[in-house]
Amino acid sequence: MLVHVLRRLGQSVIVLLVVSFIAFVVFRYIGDPTISLLGEDASVQERQAMMASLGFDRPVAEQYLDYLRRAVQGDFGISYRLRRPVVDVIAERLPATLELALVAAVLAVAGGIALGVYTAIRRESWVSRGIMSLSLVGVSLPTFLIGIGLIYLFAVELRWLPSFGRGETVMLGSWQTGLLTASGWASLIMPAFTLGFFKLTLIMRLVRAEMLETLRADHIRFARARGIPERRIHFGYALRNTMIPVITIAGLQIGSLIAFAIVTETVFQWPGVGLLFISSIQAVDVPVIAAYLLLIAVLYVSINFLVDLLYVLVDPRLRKR
Question: Hey, CA dihedral for 30, 32, 33, 39, is it positive or negative?
């Protein structure tokens, strides 16, 4: 088990180093920081002085090591557009994205497992057939189209939910959250469902397929022959074995929620880092773009590393390696 964990940790470090180099290339070679910081009317001497103050006159290897050192310390430079430290700009937007991704992840995992188990156990019922038909919508339609459809139905026609924004927020220490207000939850429902719907349908179909395959296994037939109650067979034996491959796939999908939040945040004007990334691209705010790439990589790798640890705990065979 220790060897497996160390191997996965080493792979995670390599991935982060590669992404950090890509972020450095974006930071260093895309756009001209002197135009953004000094304006187009700056003299050549002022531009050269600015490049020297940013360290861009040093060898590339030295610049990368310095960028990596500062990134580890949380220093990603100054936003060209907002004239503020990038870490402060991202810290303001990150709670909104994390809350959106968290609620979408809970919806996707809990709903996907529950519906997958139900459609596997009651696969001939008309409710299961309807759920499976509806799941094709989540698999087929793009996220932005689902979001626009929800806005039209629940915000324009029914006027039950707000169509954009985060609602009222409160400060919980240094964390700005909308989970403690009614308007915050009302604003969160549609974006979270839009973001998590595709993952929910994917997990549901995976759980159903794995559950049906497990229910046909010999040890399940033997359990029925011994007279073990069906409820215990479904949840004590079949679901337990089904969860081993589901954990891996669900972990990958949850890790991608933050990256895919860009589309959802744009549709609903959700004030998170995804919307910040889009506005930074439009304004060529390179430090924010580079920091966002590195942040997404860190979150994605961290989530998948935790999933690997959980996979080791669930699958006893990996503990012997």
Answer: negative
| Strand bridging mode 170-172 / 175-177 | antiparallel
In-domain check, residue 169: yes
CB 193 within 8 A of CB 150: yes
Number of domains in the chain: 1
pLDDT tens digit string along 262-296?
Answer: 889 999 999 999 999 988 888 778 888 888 988 88
Cα-based angle 207, 208, 214 (whole degrees, multiple of 5):
85
CATH number for 235: 1.10.3720.10
- Give domain status of residue 107, yes or no: yes
Query: pLDDT tens digits, residue range 13-57?
Result: 888 888 888 888 887 777 667 776 677 777 778 777 877 877 777
Cite the DSSP H helix spans in the chain.
2-29, 33-38, 44-53, 60-72, 86-121, 126-140, 143-150, 182-215, 218-225, 230-232, 239-268, 273-282, 286-314
222 contacts: CB under 8 Å, gap ≥ 6: none
Q: Residue 229 sits in which domain range? A: 86-284
- As a whole number of angstroms, the distance between CA 111 and CA 308 comes to 22
What pTM, to 2 d.p., does this model score? 0.84
Which of 277, 291, 278, 282 minimizes the C-alpha distance to 77?
291
DSSP code for 59: -
In a domain, residue 36? The reply is no
In a domain, 252, yes or no: yes
Neighbours of 152 (CB within 10 A): 12
Residues contacting 292, CB < 8 A, separation 6+: 90, 273, 276, 277, 280
How far apart CA 88 and CA 84 sit, in angstroms, is: 7
